[in-house]
Specification:
It is a single chain. This protein has 207 residues and is mostly beta strands. It has three domains: 1-45, no CATH class; 46-162, no CATH class; 167-204, no CATH class. The chain has three helices and ten strands. The protein has helices at 143-147, 167-175, 190-199, and strands at 11-15, 40-45, 55-60, 63-72, 86-101, 104-117, 123-127, 130-135, 153-162, 186-187. β7 (123-127) and β8 form a beta hairpin. The longest helix is centred in the C-terminal third of the chain and has 10 residues, at 190-199. The radius of gyration is 23 Å and the shape is globular. The relative contact order is 0.11.
């Protein structure tokens, strides 16, 4: 599996009680001596091999169906049966449409989510840099039963997100209409684009 932040499980840390100062763990608690029951006691990284690559299908040219699922365990707990895995299954259906804005047609994605995951820890899902789902557990008192698969969270929801380009990309396209920087995110009427280019200052356009 190629590396990317999307597949990075991050580091797992185990701290001794003296690492906590005023209810928080300061940078000074990340010492270099491990397994001494003092400050940072241990650290590790969970195995990424159990994270499935998203399975994507395209029912038609404007739609996609994506299934993301996986499970990962605590690398500091041996054997792993003592700390059950974190499990999740997120199914995302996307349909692209267009939304009219002055002089621009901005691509919009309609999404439908079917999500199942453990009730601990927190989970979130973003589409086009927009958070569309977020779950934060109330507390950790039910951590063991949550990781064991009891009281799983099941959610079905839908909405829309803008697949809009950045303000810098829009300004660049308006300065030079020959550049098709915004495609495939934006379709433009050439006459409207030229009128806007000749009449508006770059600072007039904000996103």
């Amino acid at each position: 599996m190629p590396y990317s932040r999307a597949w990075d499980t991050g580091a797992t840390y185990n701290f001794a009680s003296d690492a906590i100062v005023n209810g928080a763990i300061p940078p000074s608690s990340y010492d270099l001596v491990l397994h001494d029951c003092h400050l940072l006691n241990n650290k590790g990284k969970a195995d990424r091999s159990t994270l499935a690559l998203p399975a994507s299908t395209k029912p038609n040219a404007s739609s996609s169906a994506i299934d993301m699922n996986g499970y990962v365990g605590n690398p500091l707990t041996q054997p792993h049966i003592l700390t059950p895995d974190i499990d999740w299954d997120m199914q995302v259906n996307l349909t692209a449409t267009n939304q009219s804005l002055p002089f621009l047609q901005v691509a919009v994605a309609k999404y439908a989510l079917t999500i199942v995951h453990d009730c601990y820890p927190a989970h979130e899902l973003s589409i086009a840099w927009t958070d569309v789902y977020s779950y934060v557990p109330v507390d950790s008192s039910h951590l063991a039963s949550c990781l064991a698969g009891f009281n799983q969270i099941r959610t079905i929801q839908s909405g829309t997100v803008n697949l809009q380009p950045s303000q810098a990309e829009i300004k660049e396209a308006l300065r030079d209409p020959a550049k098709d920087i915004l495609s495939p995110f934006v379709t433009r009427d050439s006459a409207d684009r030229e009128r806007h280019r000749s009449s508006a200052r770059p600072t007039d356009w904000t996103v």
